[in-house]
Structure to design on (214 residues):
């Protein structure tokens, strides 16, 4: 067994806005992001059903119609077979605005130097020095941040908690997204039961198919 005593033991949150573009569009239309089948499609004005590129899909659209991000709209089911599927055009200014608003919420819980924006919908927060100011356990603090974002903006978030950034990222990608709470905590001691048990290496952040085969 590897000795992790000399590894950095931080409290790192990796937080992702679930189906961000699709969620922003659902909220713009006054709909619940988790209860609507919606896809954000980049296409030419006036184009017909089935043209363009799918930039994002809501969780229900993925589950019900097998949609995935960055697939061709021509692969959509016929409109007659998906009468409840909403197709909307992207509004990038809206997504940027919501992303900045989420960042402002993060700043209530951590100093700027501890917040690292990874993408428009995903950030890493080193909560080591601040989590204890907001709760008795990092898990409860993550729930508080989730609730703050949900109550303020209507967005749902997933959160991975780890002792280093990689553990936090993998906890979010591999576990949190499939849990009802949308929170997962991975520690060094859990590595044999978590990372070692990942069946597809391509599911690990930073590993593509070619690297996995090697």
């Amino acid at each position: 067994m590897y000795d992790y005593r000399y590894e950095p033991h931080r409290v790192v949150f990796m937080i992702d806005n679930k189906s961000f573009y699709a969620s922003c569009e659902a909220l713009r239309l006054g709909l619940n992001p988790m209860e609507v089948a919606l896809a954000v499609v980049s296409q030419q004005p006036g184009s017909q059903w089935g043209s363009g590129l799918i930039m994002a899909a809501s969780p229900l659209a993925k589950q019900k119609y097998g949609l995935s991000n960055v697939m061709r709209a021509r692969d959509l089911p016929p409109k007659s077979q998906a009468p409840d599927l909403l197709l909307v055009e992207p509004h990038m200014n809206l997504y940027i605005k919501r992303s900045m608003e989420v960042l402002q919420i993060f700043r209530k819980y951590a100093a700027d130097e501890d917040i690292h924006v990874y993408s428009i919908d995903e950030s890493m927060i080193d909560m080591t020095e601040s989590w204890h100011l907001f709760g008795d356990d990092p898990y409860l603090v993550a729930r508080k941040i989730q609730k703050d974002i949900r109550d303020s903006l209507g967005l749902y978030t997933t959160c991975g908690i780890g002792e280093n950034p990689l553990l936090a990222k993998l906890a979010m990608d591999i576990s949190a997204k499939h849990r009802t709470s949308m929170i997962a905590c991975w520690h060094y001691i859990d590595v044999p039961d978590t990372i070692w048990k990942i069946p597809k290496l391509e599911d690990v952040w930073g590993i593509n198919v070619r690297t996995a085969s090697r």
In short: Residues 25 and 91 are 8 Å apart (CA to CA). The first helix runs from residue 20 to 28. The mean pLDDT is 92.
